[in-house]
Each structure stands twice: as C-alpha cells, then as structure tokens.
C-alpha cells in the first residue's frame, strides 16, 4: 500500500477503505509517513469530505493509536459529557455533581485551557489543595465511592489526533467537519465511558458560528459514537453570549456553587438540567427525559447536588472551607466598571469578544506557556434583552492592575444596544440522537 495512492483516491473523491485509513494513521503516528503527504491527504479530506463510515474508521484508528482508559473496575453505567467549548462554560461543575447525586458514576478526564479562559482543571485549581493528578487506583476508588472524579488528561490518549491537530493548525485544514468530529470523539471514546452526551455550542463564542455547521458537527459526532458502540446524544446550545454572568476561573467556580445551592441563573440551570437529564436516561436511572429533568431539579434545590460537589472536592484534596465560603476563593484586587454608552436594550453581548477580554486580564492563555491568574475575570451585570440607561454598569472587570484598557475596549465593543426590546432567542436549539 502506498500513501500517494491514498492521497489520489481521496483527491478524486473516492471513499477510503478501513485498511487505507489504518495505514495512514499508524504510519503518521510512527513517523513513517511524512508531514507533506499527511498535509496533502488532510487537504483532500477538507475539500471532498468523508463518508460516515470513513469518519468512524478514522476515529477508531486514532483511538487505537494510544492508551485507552479501562473503566471496567467502576461499577454502574459510566456516562461522560463533553462541551465543544465556550465562554463562561462552567457546566461540568454542575452536571457532574447533579448526575452523581442520583448514583450515576462520572469518571471525567479533562484538560487545561488554551484560549479565552482556563480549562476544567485550571478552574478547579482555583480551589486550594485540589489535586487532579490521581493514580488510576485512586481515580477508580473515588468514582466507586463518591460517583464523581475529575483527573487531568493522560498525555497518551489518541496521540495520532495530537499530531494531526498540530498539522491541521498550520495547513488551513482545521475547519473540516469529519476531522473536527474525529478529533473530539477519539479522545472521548479513548476515555472509556459507556455513553456520551455532547454539548455542541453555536454562535459568536463557539467554534461553529452557525446552526447549520453546529448541526452538521453534532450529527457527525453522534453517528461516530453510535457506530463505534457508544450511545451518544448531542444537545445544541446557544453561545451568542457567555453562559451565566461570570467569566474567569475562580469566578466560574463561585457561580457554579451558587447554582448547586439552588440559585436560579436561568441559562446555567437550564443547560445543566438538560445535559444531566439525558445522561441519567442513558444510564437507565430514569425512564424518560421529562421524569429525569423533574427529579434532578429537586436535587439542585434540596442541596444533594451541592453535597456531591463538596464531597468530590474534599476527596481530591480541595479545601472545603473555600467551597462553604466562596469569598475565600481567589479574587483580583481591582474592579473596573464598564458603563453603557446608550439608553435602550442590550441587543448583543458578543461572547468571543468577552472571552478575549478575559484572556487579556489573565484568565486564559494565548500560548501554552502562559500562566493562569485564577482571581481575574469579568462579571456581566446586563445580558441580552436587558433594559439599560446610559451610564449604567453593564460589566465589571476584575483585574490585577488598575488599568485594563485592552479588556475594557473589548467589553465595550461586545455590548450593542437597540431602541426596542429584541426578540427572545432560543437557548436549546436541538437534541440529536
């Protein structure tokens, strides 16, 4: 088998065989296929796409390229949740404990962030003492005992994907549905869960800016999961403005704790319950989505979900005093008000611009080497549809300096206003199975 023949076949729009895809992934991972040939194939895929079968084979080959997590020592039906990323996305800290509170095991591998704000592990690092570097035995024991553990992602999950992503990044082939779907699903499948619920974001702060592209990505990932033996559901949710009101690592932990204690922050509560309901139905705890939603809602209001979160943090070495009194979590010394420049209604809070502003403050990383500042971030005071008068505070920057000009200008640009109240926008756009 020759790599050049595989490139020509895909260039001409032919469906590749499983053997050809396995040959490519194995050869590129081992270094026997050079970057220039891999780049040529990626560009051919970018222009000609891949069939459902090809995409599933590609994903499986990337799974097989490295370590696969064995969760068989964990009792019960393991359900994982994955978000395609957004601004202010602290949903894991609500859905995980919520699902654990009804006895469903959540064994989650997460990473650090590169971009707008920190990743799941960066946010948990806001809690003094929290340890995400768990041995396999401790990780397994914690899930069996407490139904929830979150550990840093192993470096050897789907190494083929890591190599291919770096190549896609410098060859203009990032924006390809089968390549994106394969990349995400290879890591999820290698993580060992029995079923997967995907939160696919759409809008200004999402990777996929349009509903059409988000649906195409969701469909591809669901098909991959189901084809490879994992029951998979995708929920398409709005990311035209940040989730909740807090952006930044410790700030997002504080807001998640507020929701776990029963505070009604509409979009966070709605999405957390939506995802958790699907997760618990897949685990066969509840017979229907409607039943699951109603029962889980009770656990947000009666303290069981918060108890599950507190227990999980304590089990991983976190200082629970900081959970019980969130004022002890990291905070920034300076608080800069952003004021409305018009009277009217908020017609847009551009999530991407808010995310970039948070990164400038130090809440995220522009490069892998950048250090996270856990206390900085942004608090939104006004969101889409809210009435404002000129001079009203629409957001507050939490900064390590008393001047944060770049962030201030980004937040100002993120807010747009209209003279009439804008139409209500859908938040959950679609559920795909």
From TrEMBL:
Keywords: Glycosyltransferase, Metal-binding, Potassium, Transferase. SMART domains: PYNP_C (SM00941). GO terms for molecular function: 1,4-alpha-oligoglucan phosphorylase activity; metal ion binding; thymidine phosphorylase activity. GO terms for cellular component: cytosol. It holds the Pfam family Glycos_transf_3. InterPro entries: Glycosyl_Trfase_fam3, Glycosyl_Trfase_fam3_N_dom, Glycosyl_Trfase_fam3_N_dom_sf, Nuc_phospho_transferase, PYNP-like_C_sf, PYNP_C, Pyrmidine_PPas_bac/euk, Pyrmidine_PPase_CS. The keyword Iron-sulfur does not apply. GO terms for biological process: pyrimidine nucleobase metabolic process; pyrimidine nucleoside metabolic process. It comes from the Bacteria. Its EC number is 2.4.2.2. The keyword Ribosomal protein does not apply. Residues 345-418 form the Pyrimidine nucleoside phosphorylase C-terminal domain. Its cofactor is K(+). It catalyses: uridine + phosphate = alpha-D-ribose 1-phosphate + uracil; 2'-deoxyuridine + phosphate = 2-deoxy-alpha-D-ribose 1-phosphate + uracil; thymidine + phosphate = 2-deoxy-alpha-D-ribose 1-phosphate + thymine. It is an enzyme of class 2 (transferase). Belongs to the thymidine/pyrimidine-nucleoside phosphorylase family. Catalyzes phosphorolysis of the pyrimidine nucleosides uridine, thymidine and 2'-deoxyuridine with the formation of the corresponding pyrimidine base and ribose-1-phosphate. Homodimer. This is Pyrimidine-nucleoside phosphorylase. It comes from Terrihalobacillus insolitus.
């Amino acid at each position: 088998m020759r790599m050049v023949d595989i490139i020509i076949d895909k260039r001409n729009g032919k469906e590749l065989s499983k053997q050809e895809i396995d040959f490519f992934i194995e050869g590129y991972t081992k270094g026997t296929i050079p970057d220039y040939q891999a780049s040529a194939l990626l560009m051919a895929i970018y222009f000609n796409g891949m069939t459902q079968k090809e995409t599933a084979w590609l994903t499986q080959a990337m799974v097989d390229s490295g370590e696969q997590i064995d969760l068989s020592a964990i009792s019960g039906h393991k359900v994982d949740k994955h978000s395609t990323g957004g601004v202010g996305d602290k949903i894991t800290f609500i859905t995980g404990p919520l699902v654990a509170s009804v006895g469903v095991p959540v064994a989650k591998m997460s990473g650090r962030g590169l971009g707008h704000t920190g990743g799941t592990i960066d946010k948990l690092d806001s809690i003094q003492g929290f340890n995400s570097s768990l041995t396999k035995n401790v990780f397994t024991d914690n899930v069996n005992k407490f139904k929830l553990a979150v550990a840093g992602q192993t470096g050897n999950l789907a190494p083929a994907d890591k190599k291919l992503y770096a190549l896609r990044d410098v060859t203009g082939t990032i924006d390809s549905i089968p390549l994106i779907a394969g990349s995400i699903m290879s890591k999820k499948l290698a993580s060992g869960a029995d079923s997967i619920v995907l939160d696919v974001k759409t809008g200004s702060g999402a990777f996929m800016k349009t509903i059409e592209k988000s649906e195409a990505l969701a469909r591809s990932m669901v098909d991959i999961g189901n084809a490879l033996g994992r029951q998979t559901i995708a929920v398409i949710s709005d990311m035209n403005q940040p989730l909740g009101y807090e952006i930044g690592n410790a700030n997002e932990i504080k807001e998640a704790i507020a929701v776990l204690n029963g505070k009604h922050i509409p979009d966070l509560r709605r999405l957390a319950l939506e995802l958790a309901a699907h997760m618990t139905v897949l685990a066969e705890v509840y017979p229907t989505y409607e039943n699951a939603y109603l029962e889980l809602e009770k656990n947000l209001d009666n303290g069981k979900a918060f108890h599950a979160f507190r227990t999980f943090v304590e089990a991983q070495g976190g200082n629970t005093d900081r959970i019980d009194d969130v004022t002890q979590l990291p905070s920034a010394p300076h608080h800069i008000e952003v004021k409305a420049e018009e009277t009217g209604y908020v017609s847009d809070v551009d999530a991407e611009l808010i995310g970039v502003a948070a990164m400038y403050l130090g809440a995220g990383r522009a490069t892998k080497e950048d250090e996270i500042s856990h206390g900085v971030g942004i608090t939104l005071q006004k969101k889409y549809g809210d009435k404002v008068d000129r001079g009203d505070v629409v957001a507050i920057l939490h900064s390590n300096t008393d001047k944060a000009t770049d962030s201030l200008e980004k937040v100002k640009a993120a807010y747009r206003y209209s003279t009439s109240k804008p139409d209500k926008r859908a938040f959950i756009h679609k559920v795909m199975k």
